[in-house]
Amino acid sequence: MSDAPPDSVQALRLVGTAHRLFERLRGAGMDKSGNREFLYPHYAALILLGFFNPAVQTLRGLQQASTLRSVQRRLGVGRVSLGSLSESVRVFDPALLVPLVEELLAGHGDRPGPGPRRTIPDTIPDALARRLVAADGTALRALPRIAAQGSQWKRHLHFRPLAGLPGSAVVADGLDERDALSRTVEAGCVYLADRGYERYALLNRIAAAGSDYVFRARDRPCAVQASRPVDEAGRAARVVSDDLVALSPGPSATRAEPLTHPVRRIVLAARAAGRVRSDRPAADTVVLLTSLLDVPADVVAAVYELRWSIELFFRFLKQMLGSHRLFSTRDAAAEIQIYCALIACLLLARVTGGRVTKDHWRMVMFYLQGWADDDELDAAIAKARQQLLSRTG
Fold first, then answer.
1. Pick from 17-31, 108-122, 226-240, 334-348: least confident
2. Do residues 59 and 50 touch, judged by C-beta distance below 8 A?
3. Does residue 86 have a pLDDT over 80?
4. Any bridge partners for residue 212, and if so which?
């Protein structure tokens, strides 16, 4: 395999790459005497190992893994006590992992992202598709003993449907999803979100940042300022109406911030009902609010459909990496775990050439457990690369 590409498994092993990335954090949290033996790279490496081993469900499991000679040899970590593992995160800053995530994202190029992707309809121009960012949050399950204390940890994430790549991430206990998005708004994006994000101050924040949005909204009272005709393409996309409106706040929003920019309201006929939800009444229509004033209504409808791509990515993180559970609910530990999950996804995508499947995940898991040799892992990744190339031509 001497002619393997530079980022192949042979030249850049997943574990070795992660180890070199985490080694940059060696001096972080070091005490004044320099005697600390359990370091940030050790903690991050153990968290990464936990993603690929379904037998490791708790901090105690990570601690037990650190006692194994094979784990110590592969990860460069020594035996650590449960107390040290739990308390060490007090001095490890999660923000130090963000540049590592950003570096991996920047180096990913035009390759497909690690998570499942939605097919981008041909009706959405490429320039618009590149701006799309889906935003959502998902609950994280802690250990039952901890969860019983009322923990409401959520992972708030951005996802770019065209690239299939995650973006900004916020992990917090009790943080409202609208506040989470407001913290991370960037210029030049088109944010897609469900009605849980509807807040006029957030819409103003997005517009002021030089971005746009397509949000699902509640059916609130509004004054129609101008109506647009619905063409054949719009009717095919279930568009019922397309208006420029002046929105009124809901009856309980006595201090709602008024909207400071033009707003377009597009109403779609709801799709045929699927699974009936007892906690949410069925609606006959879907109401969208958007600041995209010049985009055809059928394209806006197609854009909103891509919001579901982030739901698929959350499922990918939970099913592939088991990141639906938290090893610890300490603030820093929870954030470190999610950033490490994103790093794991991007490293997997790097060595597989883009897409990551359960077969890739299993093979890496077998390798880390000592069941698969280097050449067997190489052969599996090479096969996946070849299949990807054959599908993309």
1. 108-122
2. no
3. yes
4. 190
- Among candidate residues 306, 261, 251, the one with its CA nearest the CA of residue 124: 306
Please compute Rg for the chain using Cα positions: 23
The answer for 313, left when phi > 0, alpha when psi is -120 to 50, beta otherwise, is: alpha
CA 382 vs. chain centroid, Å, equals 27
Distance CA(189)–CA(192), nearest Å, equals 10
**Angle at Cα 316 formed by Cα 312 and Cα 318, nearest 5°?**
115
Predicted confidence (pLDDT) at residue 211 exceeds the cutoff of 90: yes
Rounded CA-CA distance 248/286 in Å is 18
User: What separation, in Å, do the N-terminal and C-terminal C-alpha atoms of the chain show?
Assistant: 23
CA distance 297 to 319: 35
- Residue 292 structure tokens: 């995209």
DSSP string, 145-168: HHHTTT--EEEEEEEETTTTEEEE
Query: Coil, helix or strand for 349?
Result: helix
Token pair of 40, please? 């940030």
- Is the distance from CB of 198 to CB of 257 less than 8 angstroms? no
**Which tens digits make up the pLDDT trace of 264-320?**
999 999 876 555 545 555 568 899 999 999 999 999 999 999 888 777 777 766 666
Q: Which tokens in the block code for residue 5?
A: 């590409």
Q: Which residues pair with 288 in a beta bridge?
A: 216, 266
**Residue 7 and residue 154: Cα distance in Å, rounded?**
33
Per the document, the length of the chain is 393
* Token representation of residue 64: 């037990």
Q: What is the pTM of this model?
A: 0.69
